Fold this sequence. Notes:
The chain is globular. It starts with 13 loop residues before the first strand and ends in a 7-residue tail after the last strand. It is mostly beta strands. The protein folds into 5 domains: 14-60 and 69-245, Galactose-binding domain-like (Jelly Rolls, Sandwich); 249-354, Sandwich (Immunoglobulin-like); 370-649, Alpha-Beta Barrel (TIM Barrel); 653-756, Immunoglobulins (Immunoglobulin-like, Sandwich); 778-1063, Beta-galactosidase, Chain A, domain 5. The chain is built from 13 helices and 61 strands. The chain has a 17-stranded mixed beta sheet that branches. A 7-stranded antiparallel beta sheet has the order 3-13-12-15-9-5-6, with no helix packed on it. A hairpin with a 3-residue loop joins strand 45 (771-774) and strand 46. It is an enzyme of class 3 (hydrolase). This is Beta-galactosidase. It comes from Sphingomonas carotinifaciens. Keywords: Glycosidase, Hydrolase, Signal. Residues 1-22 form the signal peptide.
Amino acid sequence: MRIFRLAAGAASVLAMASVVQAQDGPQVQPVQVDASRPDWENPAVFARNKLPASATGFPFETRRQALAGIEADSRRYLSLDGEWKFAFSPGANRLPDGFERPDYDVSAWKTIKVPADWQAQGYDQARYNNIAYPFPANRPLIPHETNPVGSYRRDITLPADWTGQDVVLQIGAAGSAYYVWVNGQKVGYSEDSKLPSAFDVTRFVKPGRNTVAIQVYRWSDGSYLEDQDFWRVSGIERSVYLMAVPRTRIADTFVHAGLDDANRDGRLSVDVAVTGAEAATARIVLLDGDRQVLTANQVMPKGQARRVTLSGQVPQVRPWTAETPELYTLVTELLDSRGAVVQSTARRIGFRTVAIKDGLVSINGRPITIRGVNRHEHDPETFHVISRDSMERDVRLMKRNNINAIRTSHYPNDPYLYELADRYGLYVMDEANIESHAYMDYANRAPRQRAKYQLGFDPAWREAHVSRVTNMVERDKNHPSVIFWSLGNEAGIGPNFEAAAAAAKTRDPGRLISYLGWGTWGGISDHRPNWYADIYAPMYDPAVKMDDYARNWNYKQPMIQCEYLHVMGNSGGNIKEYWDTIYAHPEKLQGGFVWDWVDQSMYRYTKDGRRYWGDGGEYGPNPGGDIEFGDGLLQSDRTPNPHLYELRKVYSPVQFDGFDPASGRVTVRNRHDFRDLSGFAMEWEVLENGVAVASGKLPPLSTAARRAETITLPLAGVARKAGAEYFVTIRVRTRDGAVPLVPGGTEIGFEQFALSTPSAAVAPTAAGNVAVTQSADAVTMRAAGASLEIDRSTGLIRRYTKDGQELTTGGAPHFWRAVTDNDLGVGSAGEMAPWKAMSETRRVRSVRVAGDAVIVTFDLGDGAATFEARYTMAGDGSVAVDGALTPVKEGLPPPFRVGLAFALPTDVTTVEWYGRGPHESYVDRKTSAPIGLWRGAIAAQNHDYIRPQETGNKVDVRWMELSGAGRGVRVEGDRPLMMNALAFPYADLDRKEPGTWKSTDIVPHGQVTLLVDSAQWGVGGDTQWSDFGLPLPEYRTRAEPTRVSFRLTPFAGNGTTPAKARPAQATEVE
């Protein structure tokens, strides 16, 4: 049997320093591991009898079949996906003894789907963990009695024509560890839950009926290397099949498809590894569509393992890039001594080079920009089992949202994803299945003892690290989309990673190495690149830290953040500031990968069948808490979260700046790295007070990649009225066929510029008589059929009516918001808590009349601050509202917001506004929301975040109208304000104890909420656990005198400009 062990000379008994996870910190104790320990507690044994890792491919019988690429059409393929007999054991000490034998009766066993995580099939508990291991950490030991095991059995019939061929069992991914038997005989063992295992089962199978058994252990010593921040589930997660292969066959190929020094002609060499004794001929054929452009072959005499390299040149090749994913088809064949094809494999290849050139990551000699995302494999019903449809949808969404790169966080993804990346154009940072986050954290707390704690320093774990990296390299080495090998994530540093980097470089010098190993670390000037990596890939460095790195010439590696912009919940502030910094330093900064692509919530259902987003607590106690997995650009069903719109805008490869209103000149920047702008159409539109009054198309441009040119918009003939506000918007759309998966006419970018900025002022009030009456409990103002009644005891509007119809009530001073995940994570929620109390409990100091105005003064927080609200009614029944916050107490924290909260009747159902839209926006996340006139249902204005929190805000609002049942009210500020209309009480969003609320709790009910603010704290989002998660200083509120002023105006009907407003629906992303 082939056993992968430590290097020769290693002691048979291994003494390892282990850390026991405990509340009082790490405890170190020696652990003896010897041959008496099971394989799944021995880091020196991670595979038995596995075939060597090889590139993805299938050995078809004919070229026609290979070109079609459908394994199921081959007589050499037998799928084992589907129903298996299954027995679940809650502990490794309670297993069905002898179940692998064909005579063992499994008729009473239940069935389970393969592939599937068994937690999705009703067995065991899914756990969501971040950092902490889901079992007592005492490497390499695993608690036997609480280590669940799944035993699988299936009977299959081998095709009769497989006689005379070898038979290989392929398991796409399972784990964390498993044994395989065929007909009761043990075949082998494997660890690494995210890479395939292949076993030669020729000597174990027999003609006709056969029994295949697999036993999967949920935890193993390999689990210490799989401490990722995701759902901890188990089972057989990718397809299982048998294949018949010729006795003499191609075992592996390594395609090297590069360019000559002039980046003009293609250079192709293919390393072909053949196993088997018979004489044979290896042949390659390169096709461009149906046209053969290259062929080469070589005869190999009889022997055993043989290797040959076939090569050739392709004049004037079309190079592959993510922007121009040009592919050729390479057919690799083996012919027998008679010249007959016995094996044929076809794969799409791309000609390209990857190198560090002039200090930058370069493809085909040109520097590139990474507009990337991190992608976990996640499905809201099946956990880690991902369909091809889901992968295709992900890639389509990425392409339509200007994303050009994926980091396969934090493990090799399903092979089909790489095919899609090759075909449609995405750069891939392929990441090994290595993360030992808890041990990294222990060491970071005691850095002088790093070598004691971190597995990267432990020689007993060296080969386990190296094998996970090199097996990934072997599987994915032929994909042009893969340009980086990542050694893992948050696993510390040490010689084991140096060895893994060296092994990857030795096998594949044509790609770059990425690895950090530190986690988030240090201050603004603390940068820690690894010498054995080609790039510096930190995580969550804020823009100011990136700027510091770029300016320090002691650091030579280009920076590409492996993770940045932690978009948990209502987040995603500062995206623009990140990219302003990146574009300011093209000599060092090359982009990064946002954390992360998709939420990891699960579908759960209420007793009455309503679906909601289930959190970790839905599956029992989880160290991951109630929000850890809600940090995606998309919800888990691929519905966009609002910050995706902001990312798409900032990631746009076509941008505009330097607009001159007088001449109409504007600079167009082509931020593509390879293609010109001939594949895009541009159009312009002028808005007058939010309404389009002029538009046109721009002449086609062919601006070269990474170049800019100035154009002139034809605005001279656009009439402009005095006092009106004008904006010009330029939009970029794809032409047919220009961008793979992106239909012609799709908007991929826009910019909006002010043409004029009128002085901000509320419209003059109408003349007329205003009557003011006072009673013991209220003050009432009346004019033109309108009535505003102020309650003396609460200081709030008891009712505001027009012709007897209720418009609004309330007007409470409001300084709190339903805390976001970032507010919780960085501690703002606790720090600002005094303002919550001041929003909920106020003392009315006085209610007094001054002419046509009623002035209400509130004392807040036992004298900590005061708020004065002045209501002045005009002759037309409209009311000017002037609010003033005055902090009194020294050292008050800043409030989350400064404004007033109103309640409107439930039959008010429509909102229209002139401001930023159509989606929600915040002071630090608004560039994707252009100024315009928008209209929509109030019930559609909140976003369904996993955990209810602040949502629905609109910034830079000039006015907002809320209407229904034939009447409405207009809110218009003396300057742009923030406004929010929600179809439920705002308090519904505020945080309750974990497990006591669900997203389904947020439904339209009660009165409509209207919030009018002059200031609100930004959403932030650089991180969610440090001060870097706070909004940037310019987006923070302050405990200082603050005013909010606006006018409430009643109207009849359904709005003053409904025919001109645009629907406030989600921006198209798919």
